[in-house]
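re: ur question from the group chat, yeah i did fold both. here u go
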Amino acid sequence: MKYNRILLKLSGESLMGDKQFGIDHNRLNQYANDIKQVAAMGVQVAVVIGGGNIFRGIQAEEGGVDRVQGDYMGMLATVINSMALQSALEAIDVTTRLQSAIKMEQICEPYIKRRAIRHLEKGRVVIFGAGTGNPYFTTDTAACLRAIEIEADVVLKGTRVDGIYSADPEKDANAVKYETIHFDEVYQKGLNIMDLTAFTLCNENKLPIIVFDMNNTGNLLKLMNGEKVGTLVMF
């Protein structure tokens, strides 16, 4: 087993699958089954999901919504996605806990570091909702912050692309994929992996990042078995 404790970051957009909006239940169930496989190995799994399939604060600001208000609305969207993932996991007999950075006692626990770690040690999948609980921070930053707090071994950023490229592979046919890349190189090349605050948090705390295609069933399990999947950002 390659890693003992992981933080899996999923984008809200990825939950849409082939839809234009909302949650594709086939994609949701695929994610749940992939997570179940690695949890069954004894890997301690924490998850952060974005909310872009439902609401994005920055886009709302363009439409005249106050930025702070829009960001809080986006945080609530992440809780909806987190609840959906929790439900999908529990439907296949995976024990979970949902913790929120914004208090909403009827549906989730408040985020408490020691409680989160205790859940992980007991084999429960812990889902962190509502970002950091603060406006102006992305769910990428929330994922990296929570990973550092719970002392995860790695941040796994699940995307629809199979790693980090020299350019956008969906737009540039000559884009070259990196198998591994150093944090300093990412800064030098100006590669857009995640927002700079999140990336710098990982860099300063010596936390590696792997960017991989989560939509390819079984990739998460391959990573846990030590296979080379996606791109490793290392020191």
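okk and heres the other one u asked abt
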Amino acid sequence: MKQIEKNLQSNPLLQDYVALLLAWQKSVNLISPSTIETVWTRHVLDSAQLFPFIPKTARCLVDMGSGAGFPGVVLACLMKQEQRKTHVVLIESDLKKSLFLKEVIRRLNLNAEVLTQRLETVSMPQVDVVTARALSPLKQLFCLGKGFIQPDTLCLFLKGEHVDREIEEMPSLDCIKKEKSITNSKGCILIIKGGEHV
């Protein structure tokens, strides 16, 4: 884990992103102040651990409730570094956070865009991957994503210690995999093929 975090900290795109985040944090509450000192582990590394699960052929990735850009901006930075063509769509209804995300995309020249909308109002065709981090219970995520989670969409959800309870609330989930989180001993990454469960 330490080596992965070290590699991330040496990434110029991620360095610039974190610098912008900390600069904006002084006037806009983007992340919890208590996590500023651990931003690389708590937010960047936590987000980056999704990257290996994203197919190289993915054309469009939608990040639900992007907030300060975790995991969406981190993934977009890694996409650019590896010269992948995946277009990242960040959905964030909060105007101030949305403006921050747009500034990050502009400054870092990322293959990404921001939709300043509520999730339930978004409708998009042909979404290959959907991500979410610390947003809502599993059942609610699928309800919020009805407009863009399709049968072939790969869902990558970072979940905490109550994940088993959330899975039990959705007995129709028959194609689900759990990968242990590298940043949270009680957390995991849920990997789900999605639209048929919505």
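fwiw on the second one: The domain at 2-197 is CATH 3.40.50.150 (Rossmann fold). The first strand starts at residue 60 and ends at 64. idk if thats what u expected
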